[in-house]
Amino acid sequence: MHNYLDPYRDAGLLRQWAEKLRNYRGKPLKLMEVCGTHTMAIARYGIRTLLPDTIRLVSGPGCPVCVTPSYYINNAVRLARRPGVIVATFGDLMRIPADEGSLLEAKAQGADVRVLYSPLDALKIARDNPERQVVLLSVGFETTTPVAALTVVKADEEKMDNFTVLSANKTMPEVLKLLAADPTVGIDGYLYPGHVSAIIGTRFYEELAEKYGVPGVVAGFEPLDILAALAALAEICDSGRPAARNLYTRVVKAEGNPVAARTMEQVFEPADAVWRGIGMIPGSGLAIREAYARFDAWKVFDLETDHDAEPEGCRCGEILKGTKAPTDCPLFGIRCVPENPVGACMVSSEGTCAAYYKYGGVR
Ligand code: SF4
Fold first, then answer.
1. pLDDT band at 349 (very low <50, low <70, confident <90, very high)
2. Handedness of CA 170, 174, 178, 180 (dihedral sign)
């Protein structure tokens, strides 16, 4: 049966693009794939094995669970242990270790923690349990935040009084600027996040290339998408004329998705945010607006944003900045494995350490 993705997996075309990349003779490049879904796809398809020695592809901070600070998990676990509270979450957050333990451990000890497929499912839980408080954990980027915002709008329309959101939502532009300007990171070009780009569009990337001198290419997630984008990116880098290009036009438009962006802006406003292992980045987070404050779990439960701490020996922070690879961590594959993770990068299905462990990493 014909699959519409078949053209993006065509063996002949893949060989041609891999050959083009292997013939790259320009200056050495350090390229960063920003998105966790790219990280997984690159590892799954063995893309790193197809690159010449002069092109190094590192992973960035685009796994939302991985960059969520430890105090967020501590607060979520404390909330889950409160009598009368139901915590609703995506499965990726369940096993993240923190000082208070993980949500999975809290659930095993009797806390009511429920795994969702959509944030909107949390509203049903709230409707079905009017005598209890339902707290939705929300940690995504621009891709998933619009649905979290829609959930708040619907809760408001239904005048719910037993539903709140514990938000650690973040946005991509400020962290991309920060890494582009950091000489210790030394990125030559970005493989921009495809899903985020579908919401924010491509205009910001032109500013990033112009002001920070770091070019990039928007890429899809099939092997041909990624190889073609890397070849285009290498060509742009080598030209010495930073520019942004969109090779994922079947999904990403220059203007993004204005409806999703408006929904997000209706409920959330820019705020400072702590990125695990990177620190506080001004304006890189999203806080629930005052008009919806009664749905903001930080305010309703008067929660503290205490310190963010990496587990001892964990190098997630450097991995999320692209200055280290998982194989540089002495715990990788020894003390830290998916069944018994030490850090967040080994837990999430989009985590770099999890990708390297599952599929193998080259550099
Ligand atoms: Fe942290 Fe484990 Fe990755 Fe090491 S292998 S950086 S301990 S998540």
1. confident
2. positive
